[in-house]
Amino acid sequence: MGMMDTGRHGKLRLALAFTVLIVLAAGIALAVGAILQDERDNRSAEAEVESGGLLPISPEWLEYTYGEPGQAVLAVNDFPEKFDLREEGLVAQVEDQSPFSTCWAFGALGSLESNALMQNDGARAGFSGYSEHHLAWFAYEVQRSGDQEGEGATPANLGTFDPQWSSVYHMAAGSPYLALSTLASWTGAEDQATVPYVDDRGSTEAGNESWRVAESLRFDARNHLTDVDFLPTPVIEQDGEHVYSQAAVDAVKRSIMENGAVSVSYYADQSVPGEEGNSSYFNRDTWASCVTGVEEFERDFIVPNHVVTIVGWDDAYSKDNYTEGCRPAGDGAWIAKNSWGRGTWSLPDENGEPSGYFYLSYYDETACEFMSFQGDAVEDGFEYERNYQYDYLGMSAMLVDTEYVDGEASTANVFVADGDEELGAVSAVTFRPEASVEVEVYVLGEDAVVPDDGRLVAHTAETFDYGGYHTVELDEPVDLAADERFAVVETIEAPGEDGESVYQVYFENAPADEASSLRWTNLSQLETTARANAGESFRYDEGIGWRDATELDTRACLYDQGIRVKYGNALIKAFANSQDEG
């Protein structure tokens, strides 16, 4: 895209394609352990499984978000037949999420840990991994100070919890998007050694113990999240058929080799520690999982419920190793790291002891949300010391508006420089492959009321192979004076259907009626609070101009749930350093 006209005049030709409300990527089960099981209705006892902590996502949303990889990543790659990051020393130790449904935190941090090890050439002195306890706690601990005080997400059915869980509700089920949003705010990643996965007694046994993490540690971090790639899904459902994509498999392989382990969601079928024998989709003789041929009446239940971390692959792993009756169409498997400890569960290691790993077929029909978490983990300090932000909810409660063709749409956040600083980068969110992000930075005068009513000091554009969370480096840093107002304007354009361009704008959401509870399904409820103040976030529509986010109309929730939401803040952050350190 070329330089935008700062006047932004033009004829309005907008066609609203859809509005998507994501509440933790299609919902969060707000229960812990057995409580989660009690909430499952209309399902036979024989079909019951224990969730690792992930709730079902929407197939419609999944296909829109992922699908085939963009053309930029379809190049033929000469991959080894077998690859294992463990052999390179690029995987942290296996851990145990018990007694909570926090697989989503373990999956995300498993990917980020591997990326950190890769950045530091493997071994790091004293590195024990990142703290899932810290991540899970603060993901549900609302902001306690500042202009966004009170913003955040919390479980919506706290009243149904047994009193023994009253001090640990933060450690509830979640999603990779909750992990992404929390880490993107620089809430962690914290070292495991600083906040270990134990209660205040040093135990993981259930009871009246407290798992509280001190508020002073909220923004303590040893790794700042910089990027999350939403990799293509190898098997998607199209017109009632499951279609396998070798290109998508290759895209995941390339990401593993270049950026480290990948988080993935899938359906874990009766494969928890303590169970014996094979089940419909899991072979305990070979420790191999594959979901295929799901009967129509089971589709509401055979959905992703667990998150693990992929550390490698084996193309020659035989399809005959899977449970008879649901064997995949071809050979090949991901090598997956679980978060159920080593115990008695999992593949044996070279010494014949449980390793904490298993095989997941390339052809698994529930495997989705392949995400590569990448961060700034260099040993000599972070690249940026300041994160200007309003969107603490981020992608965990996100409103996506999509406009087609001629109707250009943009978003902006206006910040105030905390000191004499050098602005070097901003964040951006995209959903479709090969989306372009155009960034403009304006320094604003005292009388400016809209984001582009000032001096244009930076302009850059970048196209991303994958959807996800991105850090966009400015072509040249921008010097800012203390107390100076500056605006970051983003215009995001992605390939649409039939070659048409799609403009997308991303905001947090909050209930339109000021109530705090958003009922997504009977199983997954989330209370969200967004604190959008006047003068912080703006939306631009061609032919309309700029509007403050607090003045935008509400939008209806996806799937005709009868829920209306209002706009929170735009999903834009800005990263800077003090001028004497930048």
Write structural notes for this entry:
The strands form four sheets. Strands 2, 4, 7, 8, 9, 10, 11, 12, 13, 14, 17, 20 and 29 form a 13-stranded mixed beta sheet that branches. Strands 1, 15, 16, 18, 19, 21, 22, 25, 26, 27 and 28 form an eleven-stranded antiparallel beta sheet that branches. Strands 3-24-23 form a three-stranded antiparallel beta sheet, with no helix packed on it. Helix 3 crosses helix 5 and helix 4 packs across helix 5. It contains six helices and 29 strands. With 582 residues, the chain is mainly β. The chain has two domains: 16-22 and 389-578, Jelly Rolls, CATH 2.60.120; 29-174 and 186-374, Cathepsin B, Chain A (Alpha-Beta Complex), CATH 3.90.70.
